[in-house]
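Case study.
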Amino acid sequence: IAGITQAPTSQILAAGRRMTLRCTQDMRHNAMYWYRQDLGLGLRLIHYSNTAGTTGKGEVPDGYSVSRANTDDFPLTLASAVPSQTSVYFCASSDGGGYTFGSGTRLTVV
Amino acid sequence: TQLLEQSPQFLSIQEGENLTVYCNSSSVFSSLQWYRQEPGEGPVLLVTVVTGGEVKKLKRLTFQFGDARKDSSLHITAAQPGDTGLYLCAGERNNAGNMLTFGGGTRLMVKP
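After joint prediction, the assembly is written out as follows.
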């Protein structure tokens, strides 16, 4: 692993189902972030964590939850997926400077 | 309306041409970052500017932070097909920790 690993790469999910997007980093960065990227809307922050054990809400948190049990992992959970959550999801981490992004998870909710 | 407005949204040019991408806001930022994103990948950091009026060069790319720290520009000289991608600016506001707000992006295509 070098940097940030996201899984799965892509997923088709039935509406109403629960899903967890995984994110793991090996850089020991304190801060981690989840963004969604939609055409015409750019990258919007869903949730963030400044350090292990703490999380906060971003610009578009509704329908999503996160946890930060340790420094390396920052999973994003959709409790009951809806079609408007169809998007590309990016996890990122930072040591106080620029962000390092994962390659993204393309999620389609049908 | 986004906090950071990028223009143009789309740009298609021929190899060898010069171009400038703008990132504007009414808010003051403590720093501003530029990223490039290729299809199927996450954004990759190009540069961070932190001082009003600062100019940074990265080979054929020149980045400038406005004097009032509300805007920035990216100028590419003699564009190459390898410069093709989505260019994103992102600002960090004072007292916002390390959280970034992203602009909508400029999609650049450089044709050979």
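Observations recorded in class. The interface with chain A takes residues 2, 33, 35, 40-45, 48, 88, 90, 97-105 of chain B (CB under 8 Å). Chain B has a mean pLDDT of 93. We will return to this complex in the next lecture.
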